[in-house]
Amino acid sequence: MRIIVCIKQVPGTNNVLLDPETGTMLRSSAKGKLNPFDLFAIEQALALRACFGGSVTALAMGPAQAESSLREALYMGADKAYLLCDRALIGSDVLATSHALSQAILRIGMPDLILCGKQTTDGDTAQVGPEIAEMLGIAHVANVTQIEAHSGGALHVTAALEGCDCQYRLEPPFLACMEKDANTPRLPSYRRKKEMEAQSVQLLPLSNLMDADPAHYGMQGSPTRVVRVFAPEHKETRRFLEGSAQAMAEAMLGILKEEKIV
Question: Is CATH 3.30.70.1670 correct for 2-216?
């Protein structure tokens, strides 16, 4: 079974600078880390490889420093890693990002299964995975908690929806977005790190994709626009209330009315 896991490097802190003109995140302003949700996707891919054989390929889109997150996937057990990296991709919204990743997947070779984390901690849209599947014309399932073997080469997929678990029988190829706590991700192996120090992360520039038109990527290919970016206001004013519970409750209600909150 050939599996591609789409991962992303996200800021390791909330203190990230934004471009005041474009409203996009300046990723070089903060140290990056592997998106936590993607760890469950990598672990699921490695478990399926142990069951069926095959290969696991990690794919990321981002600046050059995103290579460190791809290397973490290699040290966990992935066989290959590709970094989609080109200045024309800067400022991509979820649609342009999904298009770029789907093009990269076609360039690498259509796998039997594509795995993604449920969402990323920087964007929190949970849209890229399903959009990749739509662009590739394959089925997809979100909020996946379990993937197991089924008869006839199909896979049995369990998804946690609100109030219930849904079970599907799916024939490859398809895409699954893994829910958090779906498994227990393994730690990167130090021995594997030493063994794979010479393993290169393969770079994919825009020119290597089937659709190499810059107008379909980055700011040009993104229908979403950030109109305004601002930091939330922090008010330091404090008021202390004293008295009985009834008196303090009435005083609090009065304050809420003054602030026109209620």
Answer: no
